[in-house]
Write a structure and sequence with these properties.
Layout: E1 3-8, E2 19-31, E3 34-40, E4 45-47, E5 50-52, H1 59-71, E6 77-90, E7 98-109, H2 121-125, E8 128-134, H3 135-148, H4 156-170
Parallel strand pairs: 1-6, 2-7
Antiparallel strand pairs: 2-3, 2-5, 3-4, 3-8, 6-7
Helix pairs in contact: 3-4
Length: 171
């Protein structure tokens, strides 16, 4: 899969130390200029649905599972690869110094009606919910959060970069 971008979080002084490797699969689902996103109240941002792939799970299987859990999507078809966004970020647990995160993005279609979500407890506590939003509004919202919010999460730069690339390459 094509590497879209590789970033190193500014809090990391080096890439030395004990690394945790995490792979995620994310689904780009468009309907004209609207995109299916996850809004997270805690971080006041929009993100592309998807998440960590379980050990032994294929990226595409993980993507379907994550889309079903986070958005209630049904009849998911993975159309094509979009690309991979690689990050090196600080890790929050004592057993590792940093995480090497690879987000594999795919263009998908789904049945337009969303079903019930099966969010994890921390996702519920963070106020996560799926919704359709105009992609340009999602970009503007995330840019405003980046510029003005002290509570922004570490993934907002990735998400905003990907949204801009989606506009450029898919719309």
């Amino acid at each position: 899969m094509q590497l879209l971008k590789s970033t190193i979080h500014p809090e990391l002084a080096s890439l030395e130390g004990k690394r945790f490797h995490r792979q995620a699969a994310r689904g780009i689902i468009l309907d004209g200029d609207n995109i299916l996103m996850l809004y997270t109240e805690r971080y006041h941002d929009y993100s592309i649905p998807g998440g960590g792939v379980d050990e032994g799970e294929d990226l595409r299987q993980g993507l379907v599972r994550e889309l079903e859990e986070e958005t209630g999507a049904k009849h998911i078809d993975i159309l094509t690869e979009f690309g991979c966004y690689e990050e090196f970020r600080p890790w929050y647990k004592d057993d590792f110094d940093l995480v090497h995160m690879e987000s594999y993005c795919y263009v998908c279609t789904i049945h337009p009606e969303l079903g019930e979500t099966r969010l994890e407890e921390h996702e519920i506590q963070n106020g996560m919910r799926p919704l359709w939003i105009n992609i340009h509004q999602a970009i503007a919202h995330n840019e405003h959060t980046i510029a003005n919010s002290p509570k922004k999460g570490m993934s907002i730069e990735r998400e905003t970069y990907l949204l801009k690339l989606i506009v450029k390459e898919l719309l």
